[in-house]
Amino acid sequence: MQQENTHERNKELVADWQALMRTFICPDNDVSQSRLVKYMQQILFGLQDFLKKHVGITEETSLKDLVKAYSDSHINENPEKKLTDVITDLIEDVAPHAVNVASPYFVGHMTSAIPFFMVHLKTIVAALNQNVVKLETSKVFSVVERQVLAKIHRLIYRKSDDFYIRHIQSTDTALGCFTEDGTLANITALWVARNAALAPKNGFDGVESEGIPAAFQAYGMERAVILVSRLGHFSLKKAGGLLGIGNRNVLAVDVDHNNRIDLKCLNKTIREINKTEGKTRIIAIIGIAGTTETGSIDPLRQLGEICAEHGVHYHVDAVWGGPTVLSDKYKHLLKGIELADSVTIDGHKQFYMPMSCGMVYFKDPKIMDTVIYHANYVNRPGSVDLGIKSLAGSREANSIILDCALKIMGRRGYALLLEHGIETAREFAREIQQRPDFELITPPELNILTYRLFPSHLKKKLSGKDPARIPHIRERLNEINRRVQILQRERGKSFVSRTTLKMDGRPGEDIVVLRCVIMNPMTSMKILREVLDEQEEIYRNFFGEFAFLPENRGYESSF
Amino acid sequence: MQQENTHERNKELVADWQALMRTFICPDNDVSQSRLVKYMQQILFGLQDFLKKHVGITEETSLKDLVKAYSDSHINENPEKKLTDVITDLIEDVAPHAVNVASPYFVGHMTSAIPFFMVHLKTIVAALNQNVVKLETSKVFSVVERQVLAKIHRLIYRKSDDFYIRHIQSTDTALGCFTEDGTLANITALWVARNAALAPKNGFDGVESEGIPAAFQAYGMERAVILVSRLGHFSLKKAGGLLGIGNRNVLAVDVDHNNRIDLKCLNKTIREINKTEGKTRIIAIIGIAGTTETGSIDPLRQLGEICAEHGVHYHVDAVWGGPTVLSDKYKHLLKGIELADSVTIDGHKQFYMPMSCGMVYFKDPKIMDTVIYHANYVNRPGSVDLGIKSLAGSREANSIILDCALKIMGRRGYALLLEHGIETAREFAREIQQRPDFELITPPELNILTYRLFPSHLKKKLSGKDPARIPHIRERLNEINRRVQILQRERGKSFVSRTTLKMDGRPGEDIVVLRCVIMNPMTSMKILREVLDEQEEIYRNFFGEFAFLPENRGYESSF
User: Fold this and answer.
1) What ipTM, to 2 d.p.?
2) Contact A355/B394, CB-based, under 8 Å?
3) Within a domain: residue A508?
4) Strands A497-502 and A510-517
5) Fewest C-beta atoms under 10 Å: which of A518, B18, B73, B380?
6) pTM for the whole thing?
7) Same-domain status, A50 and A153
8) Residue A24 to residue B497, Cβ atoms within 8 A
9) Is residue A196 within 8 Å of A313, Cβ to Cβ?
10) Angle CA(A431)–CA(A456)–CA(A424) in degrees, nearest 5?
11) Which of residues 206-235 of A touch B (CB under 8 A)?
12) Contact assessment for residue B285 and residue B229, using Cβ atoms and an 8 Å cutoff
């Protein structure tokens, strides 16, 4: 019997043209259709069951075991498994080792739960399989993308009705572009900024055509720089490297005690650059609307004024905080964003879209002309093809997801989510301040805060009279927080992240902090208190004043 | 009654915290669950119904009407529609204006039908919503991505078991990377090539850090170039522009009469460059395995030898043809690909994955060290985080789709699809040659061919004795083919694309050709004959020897 079954299974699993063809035809009959629906049911609720059983972020299987299990590099000659087995395997064997980013206890990163309808919308995108690189493979979805871009552009820039009527579907202009993610959005913005700064003139054909050395010669310059606070996202340095200006020329400006770019330092840097009389030229100055590590917002209006004064491209990296413009209550936090020449926002962050979707917006609808590319077989001049002004070529029609989500939730719906995050973060900050064994490091401006375990007996010691002991205590504090974060992650119930901050007023001191991002509407104060309770408990168990440090189990190298 | 209904509907459509929260919780009860399943059913089969009713590529609504319908840039304050209405609208009002890329009559572009299980797999990716930028938001899916990369790397490079055991899950090395699409894969390959060519030396910190002008100084050079045949994809020029070497320095080498890079021309160009004694330096030489326009394959082995001789990075753009390595019958067409330092392949092309997925592979598992970026809060040195060596930051876990597809279809399953395309294209070429009113322009090497309508009476005229008439006849031929392509597309039953080729042996003559890409397994010779029949019929109706040209209805500007 066993043998017969095996034989039967093997018999089915041969690559076969007829069977293959059938996978391209949607079945007409009820039996086959209901099988396909059953798979979807498994996906929708089987995965959910796992997530429910599994309140924590991940199953305990160590990375080492996983690595062993996924070390075969051979591809089967014939089909290895049937669809139904593949889906069952995914749900039973693979998904349990995924990270439960949807858990309300997962408050460590900018990835979170998404409304379940997002899964339906993504499925529609996949089922239609349009390619928005050109109208011939997307038609209405190219038109939808332009409309959605105009809707978000309007939230940021609040131009006139006339402006949007003129540009929303114009083939001559572009209000922005969808990208794979925030990194590619930032790269697109700085690519455009570089090309606008080193534009064609007097026989010089522009940096895009002739390259940077020729551009430097044409402009009589020796160095191009980009200025951003030292809390700028690492994609900005990457952009500097990629674009050929050199990532060391993305200059990190110091921050004030609120983790905002220090305008005095910025102005000083600009003055020094201006002394070079054009030998060094600023390609862009960047304001951050929600730094990755602390959620801080740079003084956007003042930065805009400084850029205007010096005629420099003003980019706002609002990859995280951008959607705050949807909230009447908190949009003032982003005041001045409308001065930006370019703005980047992530769809899969605070627009709660599925992975992954970035966007870039431009104030001047003609500025993307600096990155136009044509081809003979598509993207001919004058066509509607979105691929003419885009870093990527083939792209999915993700704009329809955002369009539908805006219709389903309304602006107010999004605002409620954003407001929940900001207000819960504030309450959480108060809770941290009330606990004697914690220290709030960066209070939340948006919905991100950092803090650390700082046991009261160490607080006393640090304020004590023995300065020689201070470096030792600081190191011990860092070690405690590093280990507590790792041990809590290992336990698998809750997850906060950690980072290392340089603190204004504490020169030379790198402090390890715990970082909390509150965007899941299911994350309540009750849950956040549990997170703190567990951290206290881990500390007491493993670090009590005279306890030995737990053995280093090589977590650092595994995560 | 009407009023009451309206009132009731409006009552529901208010942004409300409780309702919003519920969208983040997967419902427990059967009624709500079955509603969610019903939506999926609608998506799976409702969209299919449209595609079936709609054998052609698109509904007739003109772009002008669509543009009018999508010109409102306002976002509703409250929810505009319920999920069920949004899905119904999408299926009934939006999808009919999409392009039916799944139609077997849609043979004009590299976008096609995908097996229906791909939609299920994409749904799983969306439901789990992992972010493979870092292990903390993806765990097993980072491990899966590395495994899949090794599987495809092995198909290309056929290294030893030891090699793959050593590198498949090593945190120190990388066999490649998933990207958004082929353009970003090509950009990644050339980014790495640029950085490897202009690496750190003698106090110079490398081009990524110091920028191109400093690199030129350190290497005593004045110009960096990339060499590729003039049929290279436009993403390669874009890469040149983006990377700061200037897109005019992506030099187009002429092709032979088979549309393959002309090695004599290439060697001549290299000799000329070498005469500059290092002032001009070649960053990369590119071989194409399947040009976008004609599907031609460059002599990959010889190119590899030339690159080795001159110590130049060898990149193979196999975005289209790469999966041919899966077919025992035709993999010889890509002989020499294993010599490449980098290879790019698209997942959403001949791996039949949903939009969009690109990949880049590297022979040397250490070469991606040239593009490493770290951050404090993620991607710390030594970690498994995939975002350390990647152009993008946040990325979906698309590798699981390819992994599952390989299991479901087996290598042989993919091979059958590829072989069908190649063999159908050959048969189609014979059919074209047999028809008196057509001319085959580029015979298929893979599954792409170009041809044109060339009515027999014009053939006679062209071979006639009046040379003064020749330019006029050529222009008329171009006009005929341009218009027939547009009119056929407008009719909406079939779609071939068109492009403009310069032909070897016909200097100065740009000829407009029809371009056919055969990758849909449902595309049979019967269908292809119908496509030709319709083209003949359109020609006879609109162009017969003495007919007037149809009025220009502005198609060129709309598509």
Assistant:
1) 0.95
2) yes
3) yes
4) antiparallel
5) B18
6) 0.95
7) no
8) no
9) yes
10) 10
11) 207-214, 216, 222-224, 233-235
12) no
